[in-house]
Write a structure and sequence with these properties.
Helix content of chain B: 10-25%
Number of helices of chain A: 13
Shape of chain A: globular
Distance between the termini of chain B: 37 Å
CATH superfamily of the largest domain in chain B: P-loop containing nucleotide triphosphate hydrolases
Number of helices of chain B: 9
CATH topology of chain A: MetI-like fold
CATH class of the largest domain in chain B: Alpha Beta
CATH architecture of the largest domain in chain B: 3-Layer(aba) Sandwich
Number of domains of chain A: 1
CATH class of chain A: Mainly Alpha
CATH superfamily of chain A: MetI-like
Structural class of chain B: alpha+beta
Number of domains of chain B: 2
Distance between the termini of chain A: 33 Å
Oligomer: heterodimer
Largest interface: A-B, 21 and 29 residues
């Protein structure tokens, strides 16, 4: 009886935290998305499902949603390809080398989001250090215009999300018994075969959360696309912020946010279901 | 299914010498054990053969050709690991069939061979289980089947029984010996358990500090050890300080030991007045009540174990010898006469341990 009460007491902080900071805001957001809009006010009288109709029929909202999701997909894929070798080296490293690698991998997170993006702007500028260096080396004969391109946004987001991919994969790789790799080799598997048949599946418990984390973060990224992407392409988070603070239409903004969150959630659920069997097999 | 010749194999890790000129041979179909305490280099030797580490010097030949340049994936050796090292995400069938994926083998043939070898190790009915759903003994059988199914040129076993409980250990040991004999596969078997090595091997290499102390049949290792280290590692042993008087015939020596003059066999040559060590296994010693034993001493300890009673007898020169007697056969305190079967005693040179 006493134990039970203690257990309940220990659960309480988590429940309160989730309730106050996750469930309530979402409930509030969903409620908001069904309120009527009224110019000059946060929201008007009564409820309506009109905003969802607007979003579903207004082509450019859906376009922005699809663009956001596909860009997140691209970023996630590149991130995986870049992160896997880093995670592999990290999982082999010991002592100081491991510590140094951890620091390097975590470094994008140690700089504030604004500073980091201004850093990109400075570096990549038409007469910034990158262009000057390339010009003086004779690699290019006119400065590259990289700022405000989609490619730069992808690059910058891959850079900042890499730790979220590297760390779980590194963890999973460390958990692989090295003898299993020797067994694979001794049975005749080359390096590539060992990678595809043993290392990759066994590291999946790290790959899966990495993919989910980066995908969700990339879908919702706002500051970097806003600063480095300029006005050329509209992404969903940009639209949400514009609607909320620009036109001050909170119900519509909430609708867009709900749509975005739902889309990401559905994608994550589908992915989890698709990889459920593999995860069942490799779970420790 | 091949003969192996290892010569002058050496390996260092920084200042530590793991292998120091190891020579071993295995004829086709033989099972050779590498026996020794942890850190003696036995596992390093096995890993060199498997190709997981490269030796610093020496050579390993299989069927007369050096294999050092061949990567482990191409050596065609089956390895059984101490902790099984099964692929945790693959079923029993997939684990066993893994090696066949990289060999010319149709899908049907693969299924047939996996089925055959699973029968051989008595694992029928567990084909679709994952390793974590198996007991330790079953996992080790899968590991054995996985190594055997590729019909390896050589079977390498690294302490395969170390993680099993005592009862299973016997079963799996017999199984290993049976399938090894049935397939006539040459095998190297690493262990620190002398009883295991005795029971399973055609030949045993007793290893000491990266060297082979003795390489011979189990019988020879036990009865005619090359040095004290080998004798004490292969079973209960009493050692008497001995001084050689003279050689009576080939391999037969008259020595002074334990206050008696004895004629014993030994691994000469011994010069007169040379100091040596006389090995007397407990089963070669007996307390006799008619006073006809060559040695006399006092029983200083006695432990009742049910079927037998273990005694410690202190000889006049202070040496203690251990031996077994019938229960109720002796009690501490009294002077006793101890008979030594000189036929079975064994004289060894004194080697700095």
């Amino acid at each position: 009886m006493k134990r039970r009460r203690l257990r309940l007491a220990l659960v309480l902080p988590a429940v309160v935290l989730l309730g106050v900071f996750l469930i309530l805001p979402y409930a509030e957001m969903v409620t908001m998305s069904f309120r009527a809009s009224q110019p000059g006010m946060m929201y008007g009288q009564g409820y309506t499902s009109g905003h969802y109709q607007t979003v579903m029929t207004g082509g450019h909202y859906l376009e922005a949603l699809v663009r956001s999701l596909s860009m997140a997909l691209v970023i996630t894929t590149i991130c995986l390809v870049v992160s896997y070798p880093i995670a592999w080296h990290m999982s082999r490293a010991r002592d100081r080398k491991a510590l140094l690698l951890y620091a390097c991998v975590a470094s994008p997170l140690m700089i504030g989001v604004l500073i980091r993006n201004f850093g990109w702007m400075v570096m990549i500028n038409v007469d910034g250090p990158l262009n000057r260096a390339l010009l003086s080396l004779g690699v290019i004969d006119r400065p590259l215009r990289l700022l405000f391109t989609q490619g730069l946004v992808v690059l910058a987001l891959v850079h900042v999300f890499t730790p979220f991919m590297v760390l779980p994969i590194n963890n999973a790789l460390r958990n692989i018994n090295p003898a299993v790799l020797e067994a694979s080799r001794s049975l005749g598997a080359g390096r590539l075969a060992t990678f595809w048949k043993v290392i990759l599946p066994l590291s999946f418990p790290g790959v899966q959360p990495g993919l989910i984390l980066v995908f969700v973060l990339a879908t919702a990224a706002y500051v970097t696309p806003a600063l480095l992407g300029g006005q050329m392409v509209t992404l969903m988070p940009t639209l949400v912020v514009q609607t909320l603070v620009g036109t001050f239409d909170w119900p519509l903004g909430a609708t867009l946010a709900v749509m975005m969150a739902t889309a990401a959630l559905v994608a994550v659920i589908l992915f989890s279901l698709a990889t459920h069997r593999l995860m069942e097999r490799v779970r420790a | 299914m091949s003969s192996v010749e290892i010569s002058a194999l050496s390996k260092r890790y920084g200042p530590a010498v793991a292998l120091d000129g190891v020579d071993l041979t295995a004829k086709q179909g033989e099972l050779v054990s590498l026996l020794g305490p942890s850190g003696c280099g036995k596992t390093t030797a096995l890993r060199c053969i498997a190709g997981f580490i490269d030796p610093d010097g020496g050579d390993i030949k299989a069927d007369g050709a050096s294999i050092l340049a061949t990567p482990s994936a191409k050596r065609d050796f089956g390895v059984v690991f101490q902790n099984y090292a099964l692929f945790p995400h693959l079923t029993v069938t997939e684990n066993v069939g893994y090696g066949l994926l990289f060999r010319k083998c149709t899908r049907d043939e693969r299924a047939r061979r996996v089925c055959e070898v699973l029968d051989q190790v008595q694992l029928g009915g567990l084909e679709h289980r994952l390793p974590r759903e198996l007991s330790g003994g079953q996992q080790q059988r899968v590991a054995l089947a996985r190594a055997l199914v590729i019909q390896p040129r050589l079977l390498l076993l690294d302490e395969p029984l170390a993680n099993l409980d005592a009862r299973l250990r016997d079963d799996v040991r017999w199984l290993i010996r049976d399938v090894q004999q049935a397939s006539r596969t040459t095998a190297f078997y690493v262990t620190h358990d002398q009883a295991e090595a005795m029971a399973i091997s055609d030949k045993i290499a007793v290893m000491k500090n990266g060297k082979v102390a003795q390489f011979a049949s189990p019988r020879e290792i036990y009865q005619r050890p090359a040095e004290r280290y080998v004798a004490s590692f292969t079973g209960e042993a009493n050692f008497l300080a001995a001084v050689v008087e003279r050689e009576l015939g080939t391999g037969l020596f008259r020595v002074q030991a334990g206050g008696a003059t004895l004629d014993v066999r030994g691994a000469g040559p011994f010069a007169p007045r040379q100091r040596a060590v006389l090995l007397a296994r407990p089963e070669n010693l007996a307390i006799v009540h008619d006073g006809t034993g060559q040695l006399t001493g006092r029983i200083t300890k006695s432990v009742f174990l049910g079927a037998v009673q273990h005694c410690e007898v202190t000889l006049p020169d202070g040496t203690c010898v251990r031996l077994g007697v019938r229960p109720n056969g002796a009690s501490p305190g009294g002077q006793v006469s101890v008979r030594l079967d000189a036929e079975d005693a064994w004289l060894m040179p004194e080697v700095a341990a």
